[in-house]
């Protein structure tokens, strides 16, 4: 998995499928207790199988496969919360579980989340972004929230309260991973695509709630990258970057141009860019990068237009936006010290009419002079139209970029695009 950014994720998913089939061939998908196996072998098989499941699930997502082992039948129990030293090939029975952190705590939190998604089939179906009861009827929002609340409380009691020392890298990563996993499930539960009107009548409070959830995920990722104690786990952080949250947040900022959430959002996006600047330099020809850049540039243009319309100083663009403008050759707008009565950079006195003209100029630049059209070919992407889990939503906008890519007859699916391979 640490090689994901150097290898096509579709190839990794195929290798993962081979490993899964080999595991099934030797019966890893059946719990060892039912097979009469020795205790040591039972526990090792559980650890191996669940690791294969979570890796396959992640690779299925980033490759655009749309399915994983979570939808397949298996009854292998979760591993025990014990240390490696508690296990021995000669032991006659399984050791008792610890009520504190162990060598397995970090892995177990991931397995617990995967098991929740799998076992939710008994009450309502939660998989690949879809919720439904066994009879096919959608689960209510209250049912979804209650299930997630119960999971969060159980994980807090079983794991998180024992991971209190942020100086211990795996304790820190465990907290970050679980928090973001819960945020992500809440986003899926509340996402407007599950509403009959696709979010057209969503209350403002609900929209703000979704925005805060996605922003929290990006800020958590930035917080993790800022912790030097987990530098050696940077590959894992990059592998689990909350790309759907980034897309939703950028799309939302196209319409949310001012206020506390807008300020926090641009700060978080810029920090995330600084943590991953190598992707900008090395993979700028990727169609998904171009589509994402288009969203970001239009979102920032909307912020500038809003400032001009309110006769306020045009905000200084973050490094992220300056870099995108440099890459795509988009000139920054002309700036005045103040939009409204005041002095322009040459010392000339400006009037209110000048400010209106400045606003119109910015609007014209946003609509007609951007060198990076939006993925839909229009003014941008409404965040209500994009699922944070369903990558098929990116198929059309990415294909629209094919003519601008050398060898444009190639077809780019999500897996290649998300891996930033534009070759």
What does this structure look like?
This protein has 423 residues and is mainly alpha-helical. The protein is built from 15 helices and 4 strands. It has helices spanning 9-25, 39-62, 105-119, 141-158, 169-190, 204-225, 234-239, 243-253, 260-275, 277-282, 287-309, 319-328, 352-368, 395-399, 414-418; strands spanning 125-127, 130-132, 342-343, 349-350. It has a two-stranded antiparallel ribbon. Helix 1 (9-25) runs antiparallel to helix 2 (39-62), helix 6 (204-225) runs parallel beside helix 9 (260-275) and helix 8 (243-253) packs parallel to helix 11 (287-309). The radius of gyration is 24 Å and the shape is elongated.
List the helices and strands and how they pair.
Blueprint: H1 9-25, H2 39-62, H3 105-119, E1 125-127, E2 130-132, H4 141-158, H5 169-190, H6 204-225, H7 234-239, H8 243-253, H9 260-275, H10 277-282, H11 287-309, H12 319-328, E3 342-343, E4 349-350, H13 352-368, H14 395-399, H15 414-418
Antiparallel strand pairs: 1-2, 3-4
Helix pairs in contact: 1-2, 2-3, 3-5, 4-5, 5-6, 6-8, 6-9, 8-9, 8-11, 11-13
